[in-house]
Amino acid sequence: MIRQQAKPRLDPLVGGLTRPPMMLGVPYVLFVMEWCVIVLIFINTKNLLMFLLFAPIHGLAYVLTVRDNRFVDILLVRYGKCPITRNHRFWGGDSYKP
């Protein structure tokens, strides 16, 4: 007879304590990056309608962070600490020495 392992109990208090600061449903870091991109586009085009880009960009950011609130942090660490090397395809992984 095979016993099934019990699923771990997820306490909502722990999830709330480890969640990053949020603004309109997305992590604060991503929210600031959205606005920086929109303001840069506005400065280059001098068109106030560029601020309407906030809705689709924010929607995309919300969709990306629904499953994992730390999505942005994971990407920043991944590409900040482990940059892609030129020989990645040859070795099937990152090799820093020949």
Automatic annotation (TrEMBL):
Coiled coil: none annotated. Its main location: membrane. InterPro entries: T4SS_VirB3/TrbD/AvhB. GO terms for cellular component: membrane. Keywords: Membrane, Transmembrane, Transmembrane helix. The keyword Electron transport does not apply. It holds the Pfam family VirB3. The chain crosses the membrane at residues 21-43, 49-66. This is Type VI secretion protein. It comes from Methylocystis echinoides.
